[in-house]
Amino acid sequence: MPIKIPRALPAYNALREERVFVITEDRAEHQDIRPLKVGIVNLMPTTVDTEIQLLRLLGNSPLQVDITFLRMGSHESRNAPPGHLEKFYISAEEIMAMKIRFDGLIITGAPVETLPFEEVDYWDELAAVIDYSTLNTWSTLHICWGAQAGLYRRYGIPKLPLPKKLFGIFSHKINERRFTLFRGFDDEFPAPQSRHTTCDRDAIAARPELTIQSETEEAGVFIATAREGREIYVTGHLEYDSLTLDREYRRDLAKGMAIAIPKNYYPEDDASRPPVVRWRAHAHLFFSNWLNYVYQETPYDLGELG
Predict the structure, then answer these.
(1) 239 counts as catalytic
(2) 199 is catalytic
(3) Which residues contact 74 (CB under 8 A, 6 or more apart)?
(4) What is the three-class DSSP state of 149?
């Protein structure tokens, strides 16, 4: 089954060209099933690119997935196309006021990681969403800064500055082989990282509620979970497409920033050559495993959440 999104969403045509299964609202209404309801809090500056990246992975499943995009009403985005958020997104405040519940919720990264959490202009609203998700979402998937924000809000885990940006493709090992989301994974797997800060591993390990599922010495904690997988914190970007790191690298170069070439990305570190994608299969597997986990465990009646 496909993901359900509006036909006018820019991602619709892009995904159709890739032969990713998508479905419009009118067709979905004629299918006698309950789709999984998945919300996406998209905080990334690359609004449309991030939509496509996440929907590409969520569409690789036999399940019908009903997508709702959430925006921070307390923040004015300068990166989305004019009118895009107003047309395709619902404010988080409205979602909470209507007590809309989700089988799954995704909170993305954001370009604010060097700021203290409380100095982010939409922090209070995002903190309210994180609190709301505890009782109104079966499983919440936090990505990059979204993972740091969730760990800080729920457990007081601080983020720590890195001496230089963690940037490139890194190999991660699995600590918990039986973890549901690692079904079919290799013992080690590559994933993109792009961040200036890291989570305090000792602080995570000190909390009995949290389990470090995957990590590496070079990149630190990659995935931590709580409540048997209902809270998932991913510090990297499995959703990135082949050229995302390339665009970030060239953007920073154009700004005159001191940026090292992304590690393990270009063949022989030659930025004139196309990068080699090594993480795509594990990205699809991870998101498919997450959707399957949510489908198997979430109550049929979302009113039973709590």
Answers:
(1) yes
(2) no
(3) 121, 122, 124, 125
(4) helix
Per-residue pLDDT 10s for the chain (306 aa) are 456 678 888 877 887 776 565 655 655 554 456 789 999 999 999 999 999 999 999 988 888 899 999 999 877 777 788 899 999 999 999 999 999 999 999 999 999 999 999 999 999 999 999 999 999 999 999 999 999 999 999 999 999 999 999 999 999 999 988 899 999 999 999 999 999 999 999 999 999 999 999 999 999 999 999 999 899 999 999 999 999 999 999 999 999 988 999 999 999 999 999 999 999 999 999 999 999 899 988 988 888 887
Six token digits for residue 187: 């013992």
Set 144, 172, 199, 231: catalytic member = 144
The domain covering 3-160+173-241+280-301 belongs, at the CATH homologous superfamily level, to: Class I glutamine amidotransferase (GATase) domain (3.40.50.880)
237 is catalytic: yes
Question: Structural domain boundaries of the chain?
Answer: 3-160+173-241+280-301
What pTM, to 2 d.p., does this model score?
0.90
Active site residue: 113, 215, 239, 248, which one?
239
Residue spans of alpha helices (H) in 137-262: 145-155, 201-205, 244-254
